[in-house]
Amino acid sequence: MARNKNKNRIIFWAGIIGCVILLGILSHLIGLKTMHAWAAKINGWVLFLMMSLLPLVGMPMSLLGIMAGAKFGPLDGFAVSGAAVAVNLILSWWIARKWLRRPVEKILRKVEYKMPELETDEYAGICILTALIPGPSYTLKNYFLALSRLPFRIIFWIGLPAHLFAMSPGILFGGFTGAMTWKKAVFLAAYALLLIGASHFLVRAIRSRKKSRGAKVMDDKADPKPAADGQRRPG
Fold it and tell me: What is the largest CA-CA distance in the chain?
């Protein structure tokens, strides 16, 4: 168990470092101002439609978030990204319930896999965990949530800010590409590290709470409550 945890941490941090190195290489080869100029030339409505529709077929939302930051600036970039994420959640829910749910349920029945039952107070935690956990793509996360038994109101009102929270470094990076300074670079690096730390803390807290709940249920099953006074016990 400890070995798996260490392996997951190594993979997590290797992925983060790899992304930073990749962004650095791309920035060096292309140039931040060139990247900013490309995004600035795109029509705003076209970019919004790209952000609203392309992630449904696998386009990385992180890249589109960088383009939104470069096109609209950090504040307007957050607003446009938020609207696009809202459209993504609505459409992915509709697509999953309309076309994907029956085939997926059929496959699950064939492999004899049963979806886990969730308590009502676990809904928000599962939604946050899915949005923040590293690894799966933004597209897969949305379809996973849509195919789960979570109510749409939870997926929308909890998933939307969680996705924006995860996208925020990219949006800020895009907004800074037009005039990157060392102060902005330091702020962006510090913000990204803070975001990673906060996400890691939230994921661990949710997992720990779920594990504690599972252990308590097992204890209750193993140690049933004694019979009430006056209740007849078998001799």
Answer: 85
Taking phi first (over 0 means left), then psi (-120 to 50 degrees means alpha), and beta for anything else, what does residue 224 get?
beta
Please tell me the distance from the alpha carbon of residue 75 to that of residue 175, in angstroms, as a whole number.
9
Residue 139 identity: T
Shortest CA distance to 74 belongs to which of 167, 143, 11, 8? Answer: 167
* Inside any domain, residue 36: no
Q: Residue 53 pLDDT more than 90?
A: yes
| Domains in the chain, number | 1
CA distance between the termini of the chain: 44
**Residue-number span of the structural domain to which 126 is assigned:** 42-212
Q: What is the pTM of this model?
A: 0.71
